[in-house]
Amino acid sequence: MTRARLSWLGTLLFWLLRAIWAAVVVVAPALGVWVASSLAAYRNGPVWLVCVAGLLLFPIVPVAWDMLSRLLRRGSQRDRRVLTTWDRIVLRTLVVNLAFLTALLWSRPEAVFTAISTRGDWFLEGVQHPLTGRARAGLLRAADGLQWLYEAAHDNEYEGLIETRPAEAPAPQPAPAEDDAWRDPWQRPPQPTPVPTGAEPTPTPEVEPAPASEPVVAVNGPAWPSPAELHPAVLAMPDAARTSIDTVGRHLAASEPDPARRIKAIHDFVATHLAYDAASYLNRDVYPDQRAEAVFAARLAVCAGYANLMRAIAAVTGDEVVVVVGDARGLSREVEGESHAWNAARIDGRWYLIDATWDSGHLKDGAFVREYRSDYLFVPPALIGVTHFPEEPAWQLREQPLSRGEFARQPMMRPKFFADGLQLVEPRRSQVTVQREFTLSLDNPRGRNLIVKAVPEDSAAAVECEVTGTRDVAVSCGPLAKGTYAVRIFTSPTLYGTYQGVGELQVHASG
């Protein structure tokens, strides 16, 4: 290689490194502003103020640092600079921004991950451009890459209360895609005919459920949704069979030969035998003993106790049931969810997901209200995956498990939303920001009657939203004062019947 060519390559490499060095000035502050502004958008804070404050990351603090350094070194023998002024500013920009990012990630890792996963593309909202979709996908993919940060900081408060560790259970096998009629609830309307059921235990629903009155259609295995009717073996269980876990299990095994219906009987017994321990859930200091024997005797438990008892009874009946831990979300919850435990049961070689806790009743004004239902019995994986996120991805029972960011971005619809045949057209995100009016559109092929309310976070009076259309439904909520709202959707098969909450979206109104 000639000397001229070496010289040319050296020059090219030099300017390439200089370009990368200069890019640090743009990339480092941009990362800091992106994270901080996403957090502000997620918490409905002043995004504009965060962006303006980004000027501190560059150029104000790095330049001021360099000027102060020069002032202190003036006339000193140490004033022998090796780097140029530009190089020093770039280096100081890198130090300032790395320190800022590290402090932000260290102090609020879970909130930062959730913010960039759900609102990391806030500045692209409403932008119409051919490259917008690619830019959004790139930003959210980058955010999902930080899932490890969330998991490193996040502890499941019920994990230590589980008697049989989920990791010891056999690896679940996802149902084949061609057999899963509910594989993608956001892309195709669901098929089964619904049955109205009750409200969720941990969130606080605002209305009572409608009675079950419509037919049920099975989807590849045990029927879902199924009528909210207790199994006859539970209804007819004599007092002598209720004395211990062993007697309960032997009674159910003798009364029901069909495996799927036997699992339903176990679910029904647990959901009605136990009351939810609202005081322990709300205090969250020290939970009472959640082992199966303890909660069976006390008839009081949080989700870990429900899951432990269901597994223990199944062990007596000879059925395979395991406990799954992870996060779950419902009404009035953060989009990433909170610690939870539920079950999976294997029937004829396939796994099905069950949450007896959420089928036992709900909380109202800090107290537990019994209200049996069967919404979360054998829920299709794609539907329970909207509200439940297991720590072990295999327990999603999906061919392509969701990332935690994808889970948080899903609108918070309950399984009954899909069982009612509803499909959310716009928006398809769990959280959005609007000016003074929020609009959403729904596909309502079964003509369900709808009520939609915007419930403010500050406990002010709810805003009644205008609902127009029967099949193609348009909803308008406004004008909304500045603040955060839970826009809740309620449905009823009859106009003057009772309306059940089937989902919500978080809306930030900027006023």
TrEMBL record:
<feature type="region of interest" description="Disordered">
    <location>
        <begin position="167"/>
        <end position="223"/>
    </location>
</feature>
<feature type="transmembrane region" description="Helical">
    <location>
        <begin position="46"/>
        <end position="68"/>
    </location>
</feature>
<feature type="domain" description="Transglutaminase-like">
    <location>
        <begin position="295"/>
        <end position="358"/>
    </location>
</feature>
<dbReference type="InterPro" id="IPR038765">
    <property type="entry name" value="Papain-like_cys_pep_sf"/>
</dbReference>
<keyword id="KW-0812">Transmembrane</keyword>
<keyword id="KW-0472">Membrane</keyword>
<keyword id="KW-1133">Transmembrane helix</keyword>
<protein>
    <submittedName>
        <fullName>Transglutaminase domain-containing protein</fullName>
    </submittedName>
</protein>
<feature type="compositionally biased region" description="Low complexity">
    <location>
        <begin position="209"/>
        <end position="218"/>
    </location>
</feature>
<dbReference type="InterPro" id="IPR002931">
    <property type="entry name" value="Transglutaminase-like"/>
</dbReference>
<dbReference type="InterPro" id="IPR052557">
    <property type="entry name" value="CAP/Cytokinesis_protein"/>
</dbReference>
<dbReference type="Pfam" id="PF01841">
    <property type="entry name" value="Transglut_core"/>
</dbReference>
<feature type="transmembrane region" description="Helical">
    <location>
        <begin position="89"/>
        <end position="107"/>
    </location>
</feature>
